[in-house]
Amino acid sequence: MVDKLVLSDEEWRKRLTPEEFQVLRQHGTERPWAGCFVGTKEPGTYVCAGCGNPLFKSGEKFESGTGWPSFTRPLQADSVTEYQDRSYGMIRTEVRCGRCDGHLGHVFPDGPPPTGLRYCMNSVAMKHVPEGQPLQLVTK
């Protein structure tokens, strides 16, 4: 894992679209079926829209029927971090970028084998880097 990327809200607002800022920095959620990655199948790597941190390989993506792109596991154990989320009267596990702490979505224990996990992510929180193209981290 590379060094953490820590920026002020003002710096994040300059770098992100309003929608990206609302999800990544304010823990928002896009509407189901509204995200651009729900039905995509192109080979490559999904990276954090805030910092470019590699998060998920396309081979781990599956159709969950929930309206959000879903994955069975992160690229590496430290690609993401997990936190207990008690918002909206529920207890869930929030998933954040392991590098910039941006909110990505939630993980649920109802996914397919072999992990049994469903990393349910917001499309706006990620970018897709096609297979064969270099991954680039955003720096200060």
From TrEMBL:
Name its co-factor(s): Zn(2+)
Q: Which reaction does it catalyse?
A: L-methionyl-[protein] + [thioredoxin]-disulfide + H2O = L-methionyl-(R)-S-oxide-[protein] + [thioredoxin]-dithiol
List, from the UniProt record, the residues annotated as the active site of this protein: C120 (nucleophile)
Q: Where is the MsrB domain?
A: 9-131
Binding sites annotated in the UniProt record for Zn(2+): C48, C51, C97, C100
Q: Which Pfam family, an example, fits this chain?
A: SelR
The answer on whether this UniProt entry bears the keyword Metal-binding reads: yes
Q: How is the cofactor bound?
A: Binds 1 zinc ion per subunit. The zinc ion is important for the structural integrity of the protein.
User: Could you tell me the superkingdom of the organism this chain comes from?
Assistant: Bacteria
- What broad class of enzyme is this? oxidoreductase
TM ranges: none
Give the keywords, sorted. Metal-binding, Oxidoreductase, Zinc
Q: What is its EC number?
A: 1.8.4.12
The family assignment reads: Belongs to the MsrB Met sulfoxide reductase family.
- List, alphabetically, the HAMAP family matched: MsrB
| Protein name per the record | Peptide methionine sulfoxide reductase MsrB
Upper classification of the organism: Bacteria, Pseudomonadati, Myxococcota, Myxococcia, Myxococcales
Underlying gene: msrB
